[in-house]
Design brief:
The chain is an alpha/beta fold. It has 7 helices and 5 strands. Strand 4 and strand 5 form a beta hairpin.
Length: about 180
């Protein structure tokens, strides 16, 4: 549910917030790629092309345009100002930036928000091809059933760990409810 600390946990992992209790340690040479559901890292006054190219100036323009094309920015689309983009277009641009980072750990906060079905499928494909671990928060049951193999369900009362996706959680909760009913 909303308000149980999912995004707060991600920000603690990113070092943007200090944890109140407990500790964790990232492994050596971990490079985190972070997708912020608010796309706060986008510069609204830049053109789409330069939003990406300014971060990777050693990459030639053709390759930058190819990456943008993979995220459905073609032709004059790359000359739009970031502030004029729709929520879905900003999400696609943020995902393009994320894929350029060459991170070995992805942290995604509500990555399917604002995406249409085609973009969700593009994201799913990119995430499934990612060779490293991914930590994500999502209310999108289809996405998390397709991507997750371990789930930490956060509730106000605490957390529950599952070794499976959404369908597995439903199965386990149904089994638990049946056992409690039979008692």
């Amino acid at each position: 549910p909303n308000g149980v600390g999912k995004t707060t946990l991600l920000k603690i992992l990113l070092g943007k917030l200090k944890q109140v209790a407990g500790d964790f340690k990232l492994g050596t040479n971990v490079q985190i790629g972070y997708y912020d559901q608010e796309q706060a890292d986008l510069s609204s006054s830049k053109h789409v092309l330069y939003e990406l190219w300014d971060e990777y100036p050693s990459v030639n323009e053709k390759d930058i345009r190819t990456v943008l094309g993979n995220f459905l920015f073609t032709g004059d689309d790359v000359l739009q100002l970031v502030h004029s983009l729709s929520g879905g277009e900003k999400a696609r641009l943020a995902l393009a930036k994320l894929m350029m980072q060459k991170a070995n750990l992805l942290i995604l906060d509500e990555p399917t928000n604002h995406l249409d079905i085609d973009c969700k499928e593009m994201l799913e494909s990119a995430v499934l091809d990612f060779p490293g671990p991914i930590i994500f928060v999502s209310h999108d049951r289809y996405f998390f059933n397709k991507i997750a193999d371990q789930v930490i369900e956060m509730q106000r009362e605490g957390v529950t760990m599952y070794f499976g996706g959404y369908d597995y959680i439903i199965q386990k909760n149904n089994e638990k409810a049946k056992r409690e009913k039979d008692v």
